Amino acid sequence: MILEVEDLHVSFATDGGVVKAVDGVSFSLAAGEILAIVGESGSGKSVTAQTVLGLTRAPNATITGAVRFDGRDLTDLDDRDLRQVRGDRIAMIFQDPMTSLNPVYRVGEQIVEMIRAHRDVSKREARERAVELLTSVGIPNPERRVHHYPHEFSGGMRQRVMIAMALALDPDVLIADEPTTALDVTVQAQILRLLDQLNRERGLAVVLITHDLGVVAEIADRVAVMYAGQIVEDATLENAFYDPRHPYTWGLLGSIARLDDDRPTRLAQIAGSPPSLLSPPTGCRFAARCPHEFAKCSEPPPLDGDRCWLSPEDKRRLRDVDGRIGLRAPAVTP
């Protein structure tokens, strides 16, 4: 495994109390694998990804657990040593390229600056590399576009520039935080094809942060489902879609429009709202919204496998009741 996150906890002290943004998250990433981390907004996906790169270090933050990259615990590194890993060995594409790119510098200058910060090369060599990178991500006329400012690019082209910057130093791991947000479906498909191509051609390991299960189905090898700061299910792509084990995953899948469902029914929805991370429930965090809640759910669910007290037999029965993964099945009796 090239990246291993073990029992990661991230909390922030605020005026209202301590926010437990990430609570006991563990996952691993193999070389050349695409891992999708999915869940609702506020579930802790981005905080988890940013913590891997040390971007959540702040006076009001408390971080425990391990983030091992190539056998080295990144949480033990000081800022100087971490900067040698960040961008060079692990790169990140942020959610909004317009706010990630400096609006007063040409995109070529920004790529050149990143390359020269990590490599002992001349400005000319770095600029040539910038043109090569823009070419590799499908930006037309890269020799001319390298002199343009971010506002002169469309949203999809800005995202391609961010991918080019992330690839500038040939990293081993790429973290993509909602890379297709606010892009139209045609551009989304182009960006996903590009990430998939880079994964196959370079053996690039990718952590894909998203709430869009359509994106996940397109390119992921494995899926980690997050809810209220915890991973509630970690499965292969096939199992996540065809044999999901957690009621929250059922809810996410049940809310997707399906072309193979000819029944005149409304899309299912997950009732209620996620719990406050200032004072999360001691038991199953999804219990208050779960149609299958029973007495055992008031206790902390098991840490191994999916975090759910339903027995394997109950899960199979509930999913079999309905073709839409049992969302309309009756609650389990204690």
UniProtKB/TrEMBL annotation:
It is found in: Cell membrane. Its main location: membrane. GO terms for molecular function: ATP binding; ATP hydrolysis activity. SUPFAM superfamilies: P-loop containing nucleoside triphosphate hydrolases (SSF52540). InterPro entries: AAA+_ATPase (IPR003593), ABC_Ni/Peptide_Import (IPR050388), ABC_transporter-like_ATP-bd (IPR003439), ABC_transporter-like_CS (IPR017871), Oligopep_ABC_C (IPR013563), P-loop_NTPase (IPR027417). It is a peripheral membrane protein. PROSITE patterns: ABC_TRANSPORTER_1, ABC_TRANSPORTER_2. It comes from the Bacteria. One of its GO terms (cellular component) is plasma membrane. Signal peptide: none annotated. Keywords: ATP-binding, Cell membrane, Membrane, Nucleotide-binding, Transport. GO terms for biological process: peptide transport. Residues 3-253 form the ABC transporter domain. Belongs to the ABC transporter superfamily. This is ABC transporter ATP-binding protein. It comes from Mycolicibacterium sediminis.
